[in-house]
Write a structure and sequence with these properties.
globular; two-stranded antiparallel sheet; two-stranded antiparallel ribbon; 225 residues; binds iron/sulfur cluster
């Protein structure tokens, strides 16, 4: 399915377009750590309690940022100031240069032509190499016996955010992004996401190296990398 521009009107919120070549990326300045996205994901996909395809990572909890910069952690950090409490929706960003795909010894992870990174769960041997390689903590192992990595099949089967591809196939956005009350989860092409972050004066939270992993060297330039 190609990027579905007609969805732009019906979805709204942080979802600007869906389908081929769209990406999912957080606006960290907008996240208020309400957990709505986590609940939306768990309910939509009926995931087990020990699995979070999306989670909120909160740093400097309870701390105030520098004066005038509380609402904008990126600007605070750019100015060498403490950002204060900052929450980051963490999930699979379906990286352009996906390290998980590179390290998987049995090619259980596939970067597809449409840009989605898929898990072939019948191929995964549960070595958890992908968990070590992913900079964003996205791989989940709900079936692991003790959560530890051992070669040849005792680490469970990798599972992660699918970017709700099944919903996208019928013209809906990812459940997390549609649920988010503050539109902190953006879905669209690299350019749409970069433009939206720019419009909001939010900027990208991750460093240049991480941005190149997620968007690839060329598309990362849209974010000023
Ligand atoms: S490296 Fe992590 S975030 Fe990137 S595609 Fe792999 S699992 Fe997803
Ligand atoms: S746990 Fe599965 S998906 Fe991850 S690297 Fe090992 S075989 Fe590949």
């Amino acid at each position: 399915m190609s990027t579905n521009e007609s969805n732009t009107e019906i979805i709204g919120q942080g979802v600007m377009s869906t389908g081929e070549d769209t990406r999912i990326f957080p606006d960290v300045a907008a996240c208020i750590d309400c957990g709505g996205c986590v609940v939306a994901c768990n309910r939509t996909w009926d995931t087990p309690r020990d699995e979070q395809r999306i989670s909120i990572s909160t740093m400097l909890e309870g701390e105030e940022g520098a004066e005038g910069l509380n609402a904008n952690p990126n600007q605070a950090m750019a100015q060498g100031e403490k950002p204060g409490e900052t929450s980051i929706p963490m999930q699979c960003y379906h990286c352009e240069n996906a390290p998980c795909v590179s390290v998987c010894p049995v090619d259980a992870l596939v970067k597809k032509d449409d840009g989605f990174v898929d898990v072939r769960d019948d191929v995964c041997i549960g070595c958890q190499y992908c968990l070590s390689a992913c900079p964003f903590g996205a791989p989940q192992f709900p079936g692991a016996n003790d959560g530890s990595a051992e070669i040849f099949g005792t680490g469970g089967t990798m599972d992660k955010c699918t970017m709700c591809q099944e919903r996208q196939d019928v013209g809906k956005g990812p459940a997390c992004a549609e649920e988010c009350a503050t539109d902190a989860i953006l879905v669209g092409t690299s350019d749409q996401i970069a433009d939206e972050l720019d419009k909001r004066d939010s900027g990208a939270f991750f460093n240049d190296e991480a941005m190149e992993i997620v968007f690839g060297e060329d598309d990362a330039e849209a974010f000023g990398v």
